[in-house]
Automatic annotation (TrEMBL):
One of its GO terms (molecular function) is nucleotide binding. Keywords: Oxidoreductase. This is YvaA protein. Residues 155-245 form the GFO/IDH/MocA-like oxidoreductase domain. Residues 4-116 form the Gfo/Idh/MocA-like oxidoreductase N-terminal domain. The keyword Oxidoreductase applies. Pfam families: GFO_IDH_MocA, GFO_IDH_MocA_C3. The keyword Oxidoreductase applies. It is an enzyme of class 1 (oxidoreductase).
Length: 330
């Protein structure tokens, strides 16, 4: 039985998600929500018989079972709460919620709707190459530290330079470099090493007070993880996880194209396999497996939810450390 899928947000990432959903054979797109009928119809036309809604309540009552939310970050919270109230499963884009206060309210709503499953779409941690990194880290005798990098010039940065305020670079939409790109290496660090005992954020502000790039330092009991990310420049640095003599070298901690284990004695072994053409397929398979077998997959689900909430806690702490306040914090 395929799951009836509805989507919110009609940008390119939603198209990629719907293609992944269909490729997984676990979902069928049946409804699109857009603020404007024309953009909803333009999106839906590639996917056959799909109903288009401009009214959110009507969309939630249209018979969908799962909603994918890919609106600007600040809107995720209200849209998720409404979906949970309608007993719909939710796949919400990263960064899921603006702060810990919102996450706690979502948790309370989930307790009142115990059959609902909530997922944050952190696509990279579900990929085979991430699992290969995890397995290798578990084998390594000692971790001395890590440097994780995700810094890409954004097409939206041109708009910012032209004097505009693109959603993804504004605090009004709970956005900026940390919540947009920094969240990928942060997810990786917390998945691999757990909660840090301290976290610090050195942010480079944009003229509007949002962060355009930054350096995060996560302090663990006996090592530190440095994270570099930004939206106004291109970095070609690889990410590295340091053992003692041995090292894992990753071309991109978010895209996970090539992962090499260097044993320090001259032997380099590729531990990656070719990345999926559509990087959202693995997460969509995992989410469907959990929805379709909630009892059998409960431990996996709880682990993912805990990871998502931990990332939200550290994101909130990091912004506090850098003095970045979102309107959603008030
Ligand atoms: N997983 C990934 O690889 C990946 C990649 C890119 C983005 N994302 C995430 O996806 C989400 C959307 O990012 P994006 O860059 O696509 O954002 P965006 O272009 O600013 O907005 C996405 C969609 O939300 C709706 N929207 C835009 N502005 C709005 C507003 N002011 N009020 C209400 N709705 C509005 C629009 O849909 P309608 O016009 O149809 O209403 C738009 O297509 C974010 O959470 C982002 O972090 C994830």
């Amino acid at each position: 039985m395929t799951l009836k899928l509805g989507i919110i947000g009609t940008n390119w990432i939603t198209k990629m998600l719907v293609e992944a959903a269909h490729e997984s054979q676990a979902y069928q797109l049946t409804a699109v929500y857009s603020r404007r009928a024309e953009s909803g119809e333009a999106f839906a036309k590639d996917f056959g018989e799909v109903a288009v809604y401009t009214d959110l309540a009507a969309f939630y009552e249209s018979g969908i079972e799962v909603v994918y939310i890919a609106s600007p970050n600040s809107l995720h919270y209200e849209q998720t709460l409404q979906a949970i109230a309608h007993d719909l499963h939710v796949i919400v884009e990263k960064s899921a919620f603006s702060n810990t206060k919102e996450y706690e309210a979502v948790y309370s709503a989930l307790r009142e709707h115990p059959n609902v499953r909530l997922f944050e779409a952190a696509r990279h941690v579900h990929q085979a190459n991430f699992k290969a990194i995890e397995a290798k880290v578990a084998e390594m005798a000692h971790i001395s530290g890590a440097t994780l990098v995700y810094e890409k010039y954004s097409s939206r940065f041109d708009d910012y330079l032209a004097g505009k305020e693109p959603n993804v670079l504004t605090r009004e939409f709970s956005a900026g470099a940390l919540t947009d790109l920094g969240v990928y290496p942060l997810y990786a660090a917390i998945k691999l090493f757990g909660m840090p005992k301290e976290s610090h954020y050195f942010a480079t502000p944009l003229r509007n007070g949002a962060d355009g790039r930054g350096i995060v330092i996560l302090r663990y009991a006996d090592f530190d993880v440095t994270i570099q990310f930004g939206k106004g420049a291109n970095s070609y640095l690889h990410s590295e996880i340091l053992g003692m003599r041995d090292t894992i070298v990753i071309d991109s901690i978010a895209e996970l194209g090539e992962v090499i284990y260097k044993d320090g004695a001259g032997n380099d072994t590729e531990i990656s396999t070719p990345a999926p053409a559509n990087p959202m397929v693995p997460e969509m398979q995992v989410f469907a497996a959990i929805i379709n077998d909630p009892v059998g997959q409960d431990a996996t689900y709880r682990e993912l939810l805990t990871l998502s909430q931990r990332v939200n806690i550290v994101l909130t702490n990091l912004r506090q450390d850098a003095g970045i306040i979102f309107p959603a914090d008030k």
